[in-house]
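Thread title: Can someone regenerate the structure for this chain?

I was given the following input by a collaborator and told the matching structure tokens would be attached. They weren't. Posting the sequence so someone can regenerate them.
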Amino acid sequence: MIQHFEEIFQQKIDKEIKIEPKDWMPDAYRKTNLRQISQHAHSEIVGMLPEGNWITRAPSLKRKAILLAKVQDEAGHGLYLYSAAETLGMSRDEMISDLHSGKAKYSSIFNYPTITWADMGAIGWLVDGAAILNQVMLTRTSYGPYSRALVRICKEESFHQRQGFEILLVLSRGTEEQKAMCQDAINRWWWPSLMMFGPKDSESTNSDQSMKWKIKRKTNDELRQNFVDMIAEQVKILGMHLPDDDLLWNETTKHYDFGAINWEEFWQVVKGNGPCNKQRLEARRKAHEDGQWVREAASAYAEKKRAMEKIKAA
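Best answer:
Regenerated them for you:
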């Protein structure tokens, strides 16, 4: 019987029919989507921290307003994604508890410090640029709620990338000190951005099954190569360079060759030993605890409203 359901399920996948919450699905499909969507949600929420740190220190009122709007967008993305993940049977409270305990993961990129204003540009251009390449593919993912949430997220992320590039473009045309700041930010964020796509395909244990189920449309290495090809051209507009002596156009493959990624660093950050892992989780735990009274007040108000409606109905 299970085999029959699995055959029908795979036929729907092959025909590009979206899987919806009440449809039958293999347990492994549910778990894979839940892990991926909740991790994406956590990344959006934790990703607010390195940028939120710069809202009050942005160099002008215009820059403050733009950055504030971006951080608000990321909060919204997290909420969309938590809602999508809840359709798979896990409560938001449980997901947040897993994040705070360190059980659940989020993107390794957000465990690096934001040292200068130029980092806001590098995050927008490189980090959001990497995210867009991955997420545009996911607008066609096989699980319906995730696919639909990503349509709006990608539209907003495209503005984030442009905003980041514009910050760096202004700095690249400024004083020598500003140019140096721009190059320094690129140097520090380039390699962590490449790590965002996850481990190389040979070490990605779930990749083959995710491709079969069309949870993913491209492998980690394919997306990483697309990113390198894109950024290697865009950096020329800035008059800057990427910190990779092995970066070179390959006429045979029609792609850029690039240097070796420090995978030891990647796994150390994933395991919780990055520059800001403990700081990020502590900030999230504190914000959750400090907001307890808001959640309690909202629940009390909702209960009072329901009681009043019952009285009126009577």
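The longest strand covers residues 248-250.
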